[in-house]
Each structure stands twice: as C-alpha cells, then as structure tokens.
Amino acid sequence: MLNVAAYHFFAVDDPAELARALREAATAAELKGSILVAPEGLNLFLAGEDAPLRGFMEMLAGLPGVEGLQAKYSHSSRAPFGRLRVKVKPEIISFRRPQATPLATGERAPAVDPPTLARWLGQGGRDDQGRPVVLLDTRNAQEVEYGTFAGALTLPIARFTELPAALEPHREALRDATVVSFCTGGIRCEKAALWMRQDGMDNVLQLDGGILGYFEQVGGLGYEGRCFVFDERVALDPALRPLAEAPDAGAAS
To answer: Annotated catalytic sites, by residue?
Structure first.
C-alpha cells in the first residue's frame, strides 16, 4: 500500500464544500485515512493502491490555491487506517494563535531544507555563519519517546497549544543560536516558527517537510530512533519502514 502525508496552507472560502468534494474523490479511489479541511488549508494522511492514490494527489494539486503541494510518500504491507474520515476544523492543527499562519503573514516562515540541515549537523552543529544550531522539537512528549534528533531541545508538553508557555524558560539560552523547529510533517514547526518570529525570535527557521521529509531526502543522519505517526504503523524508521515491519520490530526505540 502507498501512504501519503501532506498539508498546504491556502485560503478556503467554503471548507464544507471542499471537504465534500474530497470525500467523494477519496471514496471513489477507495482511500482510507484522514482529511482535515479548515479556512487556512488542508492536512491529510491517506493510504491506498498506488495508481488511485497518486491520481487523487494529482487532482488535489491541480485545485486553485493548492499549487506547490508537497507530499511525503512511504509504503506498508497494508493500509494503516481502518476507514476514511473527512472533517472540517477551525485549524488544520490546533494552536490557537490566529496570526501563526502564512495566510495572516503573507509568507511562510524562513525554512532550511533537509540536505542543508544534514550538512550543518555534519559540520559540528553549526550553520554556514558558524552559529550553533539548536533543534527544537515541537511535538508532544509521547511522540518524542519514539525518537528525535540527537541533542534536540524537547518540551514537556501533551498538546501543541502548550508550546509557548513551555518554551518561555529557554528563550534566553536560544538568543545566540540558529533555532530550527521541527515536527512530523511540517505543520507544527511551521506554525511554531511563525509565532516565535512574531514574538521577537528572529533567529528561528523551520525544517521544511519535517522529520518525514528529512527521512525521505537524507535518511537518519543525526536522528535517534523512529518518528511516531498517528496511525496503525505507530512509528517509521529513517528508511520509512513501519515499526511492525522493521527488522528489529518490538525493540525499544
């Protein structure tokens, strides 16, 4: 089975109508998983046979406002979702900071691509100007238990909405570093980077494509363990193999 994770920020005038159309198309393609639609865009995790799923993604990328959609693909022996769910939400990921979206700022937060980050890690954790690089994990504590970047700053949060308060004690220590926020697929680290820059931290970048994008383009350089995913695969290793299918399945991560 082919699996895809993707999100895209764009203005959705009628989220309910877009959700209806996507449900119809995904059902016709016999896809399973989740699609979240909000006024700020969409977020999806889907699985299905290769050709129908790729056809659905091509259709989606052709919709007005969705040009430039970036998707992360992986494979599994079976669909990791029991059914298809399509929902309309206020946000594609709840953060409750209305300005923390490219729709409000007019542009994305500055980003670093996976090959560049891998190069920085390979040169002792410093960027091209010689500044120390601090990796900021914007995921919750449960996800972090499965794996994270070596030496990353992790926060004791259960929900993404708790990040601003949890980050506060670390702000002074981060002042002279290049901070790279990261998450599973990019949504949370993008919102977090936008909020931090709006809140005076102009030294923050987002990891473009998140951990899954890093695995896809670079592999596991600098990463320890696996990446938790919100479906029956539980977590993926740097080769994008599900936990249940990895050679050391069941071992501690």
So the answer is: 183
